[in-house]
Specification:
Elements: H1 7-14, H2 17-20, H3 25-31, H4 48-61, H5 73-76, H6 78-86, H7 121-132, H8 149-168, H9 177-185, H10 193-208, H11 220-223, H12 238-242, H13 249-272
Helix pairs in contact: 4-6, 6-10, 8-9, 8-10
Length: 273
């Protein structure tokens, strides 16, 4: 099993990025162990190759088994959430705003979240500009040209793949954790900050947002964080709200004891008056 390498050790071994490009494939295989890549197909918007890079990128930020015992981005389908958002205008009814007020997650009525609200003309223009960019259209450039999320992702994912192949001589999806960190943090000509910030933010959205939008598959992001999610109109019984959760019971007990002591001290003070 290859050792975990810090930045200084990695650079010491490689000497220079130009030399790294000449490193034998066997050495790279040892330093950057192969990671089982999710090889599902194309998405709604992204090609199969870009989806593969995106899946590995999201899983790098929120790993699941075997790196982490809790479910991660792969288990939650985070890349599918992002791809669905990028290609939402390819759908008959864009998946931008889910209905409400109830999701029926715990019974009690229909799932209003399963229907999608139609966008009015202004909402569609705003969201198309955000996702597709202004594309030189005057009605989308009221504040100047806009680089859309689609372009940001395609260029960013391609840059990750190109940097990985150039410097490490392997596809990004086949790199181990060390190799992915190298491509993201240290190599020149990689993805720009705008892409990484957007992708990271939307990775969190896909991990912990409502499952109807394509991520948080099966509510895994809610279950392992012990958040019950939205389950209206389910009502809590008295037993569920009368006592604190087990992991909070000790803190609540300390607070109650402190409050009783403070009340007792107050009574003594008033008696002395």
């Amino acid at each position: 099993m290859a050792p975990n390498l810090d930045r200084r050790t990695f650079l010491h071994l490689c000497g220079d990025f130009a030399l790294l490009a000449l490193a034998p494939r066997a050495l790279l295989a040892e330093l950057l162990p192969n990671r089982a890549a999710d090889r599902e197909g194309a998405g709604v918007f992204l090609s199969a190759e870009r989806m593969q890079v995106l899946r590995v990128l999201c899983a790098h930020w929120i790993p699941g088994p075997p790196e982490d015992p809790d479910p991660g981005a792969a288990e939650a389908g985070v890349a599918n959430y992002i791809d669905l958002l990028l290609g939402t205008f390819e759908l008959e009814l864009p998946h931008v705003f889910a209905g409400g007020p109830f999701s029926n997650r715990a019974g009690g009525g229909p799932n209003h979240f399963s229907r999608w609200l139609e966008l009015d003309a202004l909402e569609e223009r705003v969201w198309r500009t955000r996702i597709e960019g202004s594309r030189g259209l005057a009605e989308r450039e009221w504040n100047g040209p806009v680089r859309g999320w689609q372009e940001t992702y395609t260029q960013g994912l391609d840059a990750l793949e190109a940097a990985s192949r150039r410097w490490l001589r392997r596809p990004f999806a086949e790199l181990g954790n060390t190799g992915r960190s190298v491509v993201l943090d240290w190599l020149p000509d990689g993805a720009d900050d705008a892409f990484l910030e957007l992708a990271f933010r939307q990775t969190l959205e896909g991990m912990y947002g409502a499952p109807e939008y394509g991520g948080n598959r099966g509510g895994v992001g809610w279950r392992y964080t012990r958040w019950p999610g939205d389950h209206q109109p389910h009502a809590y019984g008295y037993d569920e709200i009368a006592e604190p959760d087990p992991d909070q019971a000790e803190a609540v007990a300390r607070a109650r004891r402190r409050a009783r002591r403070e009340r007792g001290q107050g009574s003594e003070d008033s008696g002395n008056g």
